[in-house]
Fold:
Amino acid sequence: MDEVKVIEIKKSIFADNEIDADNLRKELKEKGVYLLNLMSSPGSGKTTTLIQTINRLKDKIRVAVMEADIDSDVDAIKIKEATGIESIQLHTGGMCHLDAEMTRQGLDNLTLQNTDLAILENVGNLVCPAEFDTGSCRNAMILSVPEGHDKPLKYPLMFSICDVVVINKIDVMPYFDFDLEKCTEYIHLRNPKAKVIPICAKTGEGVDVFAQWLLDEVKAWKE
Amino acid sequence: MDEVKVIEIKKSIFADNEIDADNLRKELKEKGVYLLNLMSSPGSGKTTTLIQTINRLKDKIRVAVMEADIDSDVDAIKIKEATGIESIQLHTGGMCHLDAEMTRQGLDNLTLQNTDLAILENVGNLVCPAEFDTGSCRNAMILSVPEGHDKPLKYPLMFSICDVVVINKIDVMPYFDFDLEKCTEYIHLRNPKAKVIPICAKTGEGVDVFAQWLLDEVKAWKE
Structure:
C-alpha cells in the first residue's frame, strides 16, 4: 500500500477568517492555483467522485488533493493509488471543519508550482464546514441518494453556499424514496443559482459534466 | 398535515457542560424518565428507525420525542403522524449539536409526568454531537450501509461514546461494498463494549432487537 504525507493541522490563530480567506484567494490567483472546497455528509462518496473526476482531468490540468479527516489516512491513500496524483492527508485532531488558515497549512504541503487545481475534501459534515470560508474559489457539495431529498430543508446554510450540488449514487434511486425533481426544487429554494449535477461515481455516469464544469472553472481562473 | 410544537433553542449559559449533564441525569432519575440520545449522519434513517421502534414500544411504555434540526419541522410531524405520540421540534438556529442545557430546554416542553422514555434525535452530524454530553442515560447511533464500513476509522469519538450502534439499511447491502464483519471489528476497536444491531428500518427487520434493548434499559432505569 502507498504511503502518503499526513499533516496534523493546528488550530487557527487568525481572528478574522473572512479576511484571511480573501487573502488566501488573492495569493492563489497570483499563483494560478484554483482551489475547490468539496463538502458532504460522511459516506456520500466524495473520494470515489474525486477519483473519477481526477482521472478525467489529469491529462489536461495538474491536480492535487488534500483529504481532511479527523483521523485515518485511507482516503489520501485511495486517491493516490487510483489516480497517481499528489495526495496528502490532513488530520484535524477532532475539529469538525477547516477554515482558511487551516487550509493554508495543507496548501503549504503541496507543490503548488506544479498545481493548477487543488481540491480540499473537507471533513464529512453538513453543518460546520458551511460556516467557514476556506479561501476556495468555489464550494461544491455531494448529496447522495440514500440521504434523502429533504436535506436542503434541514441543512440550509450548506446548500446556500454551494455553487454546485452533485447528486451521487443515482444508480440506487430505485431502492430509495428519492425525488430528484423535489430535491432540485429544495436546492434552488436555498440557492437559485446552484448547479445540480446527478452522477453515479461508481459507474462514472454523469461525472463528465462535473469534470467539464471544473475544467472550465480552472481555465477561467488562470486567464 | 399535523402541526407540532417548535422550540427555538437558545445557546447555553452554563460553563461546565459535564456537571450540568450529570445534574440533568439525576433529575431525570428522580422523575423516572429515561433519556436516549440518538445520533447519526444526515439521512441515515434516524426518523424511520424511531417510528418503527416507537410503534413496538408505545403500548408498553410512554414515549416522547424531541427532533433537533437546524431548520424545518418535517421530522417531528412525521413522528407524530406515524406513531401518535408526543413529538416536538427543536430548532438549533445553526448550532451543530445539543448540550445538556439545550436538551433541558427541549425536555421542559415535554409533559414529563406522562413520559417513561424521552428520545432526543440529535442534529445529523458525526462530529460535534459526540463532544457534548446531553445528560442522556445512553448514547445510540445509526450508521447506514450506504455510508460505508470505514466510518468508525474516520469518526473515532462518535463510535467510542455510543453504547449501541444500529446498522441501518441492510436491505441494500447487495448494492454497496459494505462489510458488516469489518464494520463490527472497527466499531469494537473504538468501543469494545458497543452493542451492534443490524436492522432495516424500512421493512422492520431487526428493529425488535433494538426495541427490546431500549425497553430493558427503561425498566432498569425506573427500578
